[in-house]
Amino acid sequence: MKIVVIGGTGLIGSRLVTNLRSQGHEVVAASPKNGVNSVTGDGLAKALKGASVVIDVTNSPSWEDSEVLKFFETSTRNLLAYEAAEGVGHHVALSVVGTERLLESGFFRAKLAQENLIKASKNPYTIVRATQFFEFVKQIVDYSTEGNTVRMPSALIQPMGADDVASAVARIATNPPVNGTVEIGGPEQFRLDELARRFLAARQDPHQNPREVICDPHGRYYGIEVSERALLPDSNAQLGETRFETWLAQSVAQIANASPQSASVGR
Ligand SMILES: NC(=O)c1ccc[n+]([C@@H]2O[C@H](COP(=O)([O-])OP(=O)(O)OC[C@H]3O[C@@H](n4cnc5c(N)ncnc54)[C@H](OP(=O)(O)O)[C@@H]3O)[C@@H](O)[C@H]2O)c1
Questions:
Q1: Ligand 1: does its nearest atom lie under 6 Å from the Cβ of 106?
Q2: Coil, strand or helix: which one is 6?
Q3: How far is the CA of 10 from the centre of ligand 1 (A)?
Q4: How far apart are CA 162 and CA 134, in angstroms?
Q5: Where are the alpha helices (DSSP H) in the chain?
Q6: pLDDT single digits (tens) 33-50
Q7: How many CB atoms within 10 Å of residue 262?
């Protein structure tokens, strides 16, 4: 099959491209770096020629409210129109578990707009909603940091590794469209404050002052209030296998090998 990965150079996109190529598919890694822009339409017609499946794993360069909305609306409208013209049989888009419960955030309003455009189209589709990636935990912790204090609510989270996200999206994309939403998540639940503590405990950066994680009922998840179960997937979600501690240990080792002076954990 010819499969086009829009956002094929990103965290998930690059893993998806490798995974699908290893299964023998013809895969185009489409992104502005490779001359394909889903917002302007540049290079789209050529990239989609003869494609059976298009997978949208783009992200907006700006998360400012109006910018991110404009990005997902324009990009999604373009993709759906070019795919319809080319007769592409499956549009797959990566979204986020709990999107409709997180609408205080402009980012999630934009993801909901993306989902609604897909659902309103005539294109055969599958929306894949994933929980937060392990690779995103650093950003969550940094966002809630003030000085040496990290204020986190105790809401539950069921994060998953980017490799497991890519495997699940690859599996779903190479099956027929469900014209609905599939949820994917990690194998374990954590309290947000506990996850932040575990993440920071694995860091061994001697140049940073240790940060203390405080469980604060008014603490925010990436700037928004979240209820106890807002970030959790449905009970029928497909679950990845990689555990957070396994990923954390691998990340620390990788970073220590790359730069023996510093072992701070990131993407
Ligand atoms: N972070 C999480 O925990 C989480 C959880 C669930 C779902 N998601 C969703 O997963 C998706 C992918 O996230 P990610 O972390 O893999 O993103 P990422 O690493 O930031 O990659 C974004 C990709 O989008 C491409 N892109 C940007 N502007 C584009 C344009 N105009 N046309 C075509 N491609 C464009 C980038 O291409 P260049 O490299 O050329 O700039 C890059 O390949 C997002 O939609 C996000 O909402 C995230």
A1: no
A2: strand
A3: 5
A4: 7
A5: 11-22, 44-48, 65-86, 106-120, 137-143, 162-173, 192-202, 244-258
A6: 999 999 999 999 999 999
A7: 14
Cβ 11 under 6 angstroms from ligand 1: yes
Three-state DSSP state, 25: coil
Tell me the pTM: 0.95
> Rounded to an integer, what distance in angstroms lies between the CA atom of residue 249 and that of residue 266?
12
Q: Which residues contact 105 (CB under 8 A, 6 or more apart)?
A: 222, 223, 224
Segment 135-153, tens digit of pLDDT: 999 999 999 999 999 999 9
Written as six digits, the tokens of 149 are 């204090």
Q: How far is the CA of 7 from the centre of ligand 1 (A)?
A: 6
**Pair 16, 174: CB distance under 8 Å:** no
Residue with tokens 């204090």: 149
The answer, yes or no, to whether any atom of ligand 1 lies below 6 A from the CB of 17, is no
